[in-house]
Queue: 4 jobs
Job 1
Amino acid sequence: MSISPNIPNPQESYHYDSGGGTPRWITILFAIVVAAIGALAYAGHSVQTRLEQELSKAEDQNKILTAQLEQANTRLADLKGQMDVTSQKIGMTQAELADARSRAEAIRKQQTASDAKLTAQIAQTQKESEEKIGAVATDVSGAKKDIEATRSDLEATKSKLERATGDMGVMSGLIARNHDDLEELKRRGDRNYYEFTLQKSKTPQRVGPVQLKLDKTDQKKSKYTVTVLADDKSIEKKDKTAGEPVQFYVKGSSRLAPYEIVVFDVNKNQITGYLATPKEGGSPAASPAPAKQ
């Protein structure tokens, strides 16, 4: 079998390529492998980076959840403590309420017993009072006439004691023996009354519409001497006694109603009493002698 001289020998061609350099397909295959390895490395790096980021986020989230859990545990512990305290207080309050109810019931029973006892005492007292009132009413109706008779006698005696004949022989008005009696006379308003306390002095003292000057006192005998200055003249009333109506006249006064001086007390250097003047002639002109108020 003859071979055409134009067709190359395969063995010769193979040996030629192997001796001339690396085949192209190997280079391409190597490049593809390297590219694949690079792609895989990049993909692995990306996956690792993403995993690290997710792990970091998971750790942060875990920290947040841990802090929240700790806060929740703290709140739970506080709430439990408050619940324990509240439970103790509720237990104490219930005990106190029970004690209060017990005391209230005891007080109510005591009050009921006291009310019953007081009601019985009131009824007994009322009964005794009615019996006494009935007895007193009987006595009062029998003694009323005696009281009226006694009152009439007392009024007559009082009238005799409160009137006296003055040093000028004229029956006086009602006589006051002290300050309280004088206040009663003032309330009646029958005459004008001027109370005074007169000191022993050379200067006269104005008393109502006149002036009086105390000249002498005798405390042991309750006597005194006084000078009356009225109508530009002086009238000496000598050795007069406490309680005696000392009478004198001034211009315009009635002969039946003279001015009267009545002395309550006679001391060592002073006298206390009052001047009584008639209503219609109670303010005549006084003496111009200097007055000591």
Job 2
Amino acid sequence: MMKSAWKVYVLALISFLVGTSNYVISGILDRIAETLGISVATAGQLITVYSLAYAVVTPILMALTAKMDRRKLLLYSLGLFIAANLLTYIFSGFGLFIAARIITAIGAGVVTVNALSIAAKIAPSGKQASAIANVTMGITASLIIGVPLGRMVASAFGWKAIFLVIAIVGAISMLVIAAVFPRMKGDKPVPLINQFALLKKPQVLVALAITFFWLGGYSLAYTYITPFLLEVTHINESLISAALFVFGIASLIGSKVGGYSTDKRGIKFTLISGMVLHVISLLLLALVGQSVIAVFAILILWSFAAWSSAPAQQFNLVSLVPESSGVMLSLNSSMMQLSMAVGAGMGGLIVNRISLASITWFGVLGVLIAIIAVFVLFSTGLRYSAAQSADKKLQ
């Protein structure tokens, strides 16, 4: 077990790098805007293009490379991810930076899905779920450690240094994988047309709409969290890293509590209660004023509430169509990235045309629509009929 455990942690480190490269943009948005001579709203579109590229290209590439040796695919995609981060460090213009972010997203998407697959393959029997959880924790850790650490590195050495560090650590990880990871056969390919056939089911569309509006509302506000804290709540620059750190810690606790609540109280209760708290926290953030203690408390509540919905929604999708759980999770992953892209894009429009202070109100609107979608799924019999249909197919 110990022989494979450390390899899983190498994969967790890689997922941490991927998550940091993605989420850190929100933590340094003001620095990027200042360096590139663009508005904060324009800088926010870096998240939009990244998430769109991730959402659209990842399922296509995973379908095309299904038969490829998993180790080789991980090395190729990790190499692309490393090269893209180096380009981000080297490039100076906004257009070239956009191109680098698109390449980063393409590499990151394949790296993430493949790392989860490899973790399950190399884990001892009965420990596959724990291995996958450890790799997923790498992404969570990027919120807790990577984003505030990135802010500190940006303050000390400039924001581009973050991507150089990611590339260097990624290169070291790549050498370890090449040296000690075994070759692994690919999976039986699932044609894209079969994957998207699930979208014909009304219950699947409603369930994915929950993800879209819940995470879209979250992304709309979180993308601009650093300039919001600096310009609207007037938090001191020296406290931004601390604010991002407590936000990350709360996301981890929220995810844990959300999983426990889903097991004990059910999917509907966990989703509704988490999203109601999500709405309340965004409203409070809009009204809190300039009290540092109050802002920190609300950030904790917001992150806790937002991420408590994640495990419940994942389980919701898996149990909705259990015979196609892998495809459902893949579709949900793409929907998550798409919602983040739309949220960041809408946020940019709102910041430009209305105000930075209003982003939390629009975030509330997205989460409220997600709550309505939960009631539609559970109150109209859609979910019950889907589960019943799945049970008949499995018998």
Job 3
Amino acid sequence: MRIAALLLALLASLPLSGQYRCANSELWRGNPAQTPANSGAQSVLQREPIVIPVVVHVVWRSAPENITDAQVESQIEVLNEDFRALNAEATTVPAIFNPVLADMEIEFCLVATTRTQTNVSGIGTRFEGGLRQVCYNSLGGHDAIDPSQYLNIWVAGRTDGACGDAPLPGQTDPVPPAEDGVFIRPDCFGASGIAGPPYNLGRTTTHEIGHWLNLKHLWGEGFEDPLCQTDDMVADTPEQAYSYQDECPTHPSLSCGTADMFMNFMNYTNDACMALFTEGQKERAWAAISTYRPGLLGASCNPVSAFEPQQTLTDIRLFNNPADSWTALQLPEKDIFEIAIFDQLGRLVFIESPTGGGLFYIDTRSFISGIYYIKIRNEGKIHTKKLNIVR
């Protein structure tokens, strides 16, 4: 039987050269926010998938760390399979968990890959002046590309033995916007190249993006929870005590009085044993996008410059907000705009492409009361406005 004292002893003896799945419990700044909540196993309505544009920053010191384009592309393929429940392992989910197996309706597109040679060893977990070095050109890494519009993934060496980490949104002590993204070790990234077992199927990135979307480990806080005192705040993932680090267990494996969903992507099992997200996790992730990452709603998959920060449209005004039957946008003098409006669940409720600038009226009589996000795009420039409909 695993007990707390034994666990502490094992952690104390863990060498830096060892490897483990996720460092989030060590690197998070402050306590994760406890909202948005979710209703657990209730099925989420079908809708258009959210497509998240991805920028991968390869920051390398030794030649093997400069991973190939093929390895980067293999990771995007894994993400699109895992988040749409198209991965082969989904067919192996035990029957007891099949009713809550979810298509997350989230997809990913690669819009840029940057490559930076650095002289900083283990830069992925190095800090200087409180700043994470890998996220800054001036500190030997690479600057993020507009984290409000793109998922930035830094692939770089680490000093802590972990495969990766990522911040939960809404923390009481949030990371700076320039450091908002996912951090993965090169040999735990993708499903080809230098990726090595047991983390060679790209599931570390799936796991860390789960954190980025406000999903917690199934046992809750800390490395494990042998006393079954915390959980992940998702009703349809059974409470469990253990992380299953470096394991590929058989079903049923029991703790906290029930069979554990050890094959969930938010556990520490080996890549080959990971298989599913749940409907409750899907609801929590979508709520996190609407609440904390609204810029992703309707984000563009057009390639972006990897060396210039993404420009934003700053000279746009929104009139009559809160609105009842109408609202209006004051647009700058440009050729063509794309205007899309999404509700809090990420559903597209309006899209139009006006030409020229000036005042653009939007009829909102068909909108129900609530919060909406207006996405305005002109070529490479993007802006998001928050609209409140009140009746």
Job 4
Amino acid sequence: MNPIQVGLLGAGTVGSGTLKVLQRNQEEIRRRAGRGIAITMVADLDTARARAVAGPGVEVVADARAVIANPAIDIVVELIGGYGIARSLVLEAIAAGKHVVTANKALLAVHGTEIFAAASARGVVVAFEAAVAGGIPIIKALREGLTANRIEGVAGIVNGTTNFNLSEMRDNGLDFSVVLQEAQRLGYAEADPTFDIEGIDAGHKTTLMSAIAFGIPVQFDKAHVEGITGLQATDIRYAEQLGYRIKLLGIARRQSSGIELRVHPTLIPAKRLIANVEGAMNAVLVQGDAVGTTLYYGKGAGSEPTASAVIADLVDIARLHTADPAHRVPHLAFQPGEIADTPILPIADVVTAFYLRLSVADQSGVLAAITSILASHDISIDAMLQRQSSQGQTQTELVILTHNTVEGRMRQALATVQALPTVLAPIVSIRKEELS
């Protein structure tokens, strides 16, 4: 059988890794796929770079549409990124009857509903294992390996840049701005790290996982997203003293009234495996009713780890290239007609616990006033730390861990506490998840 022919759009970090791994392991891949897989055409504006990584026998062009127009190309791999030209090229490839493989989580999180509908109508596949958690096969696990389960929740560390920053802050007691500069120097953070540090990248990935886990539309616009820019080394230190670590966590959880979809810094008990994921590594915890808790760990980015996921998608498509489209694995795990319009819960309706840090006047009655306000909003305290004041100091710090409460109720209580004249600075609040 002739090799399936692939056109590659973008020969950057992941594109070059895909070429290298496919060439290096071509015989092993052929044995698994049942036929060869060959990248025969590459499009990149930097044609010199593309020729250097593509090697002999591969046609290199500057125009991506020339790849899509080539009737010999069976699969288009989109590794350009972003929302703009990538969306047009993917939809054009689908219209031309090409299968698509992409690592573009931003594109799918925002335009996935449109793209998957177009692919289903045309009878082609859009595969995106590389879009979430790099080399970790979490999409396949959710979509296929856990098919028998009613998925109750997903919680993941899915952005290596922020996890590296948080690990450095904890290990070295450094503030965020200092650690970010080091991450940029080492290449873990982009020159413009906004998508990473503001939680947007993790939000894109969590949105995709939620759609597959619960059979709902892709709807990033309804996700609650917070980053790590406001975190201070002080809070990481206090969390450690209380037996917790702070991670940027993407959470998608099923509730009777809807789906939680949120990304934010989160206290996790230090004894949990996911709390011990350090550096630029990723991990995703999945809770299913039959299998219980499973954890998927590995490199969430990088040239060859992400290429591993891209090639896995190519192998899947090669295996089912001639299969009846109606019998393929659905893009979002559930059959297109079975996607449910389950509401995404507003963050004010989410139930979770909280870490609170308050700078207060060092005088009698302060703690009693704060706990009284919390109690009046039906918020109970789980644990508390109070820093010992030095002689002559007029203020001190209180750290409070609460039991679970409705977030809207907590916001009301904190507004009342903040208004006390004895509360001397903005209250720091961070959500806490036991993940038990």
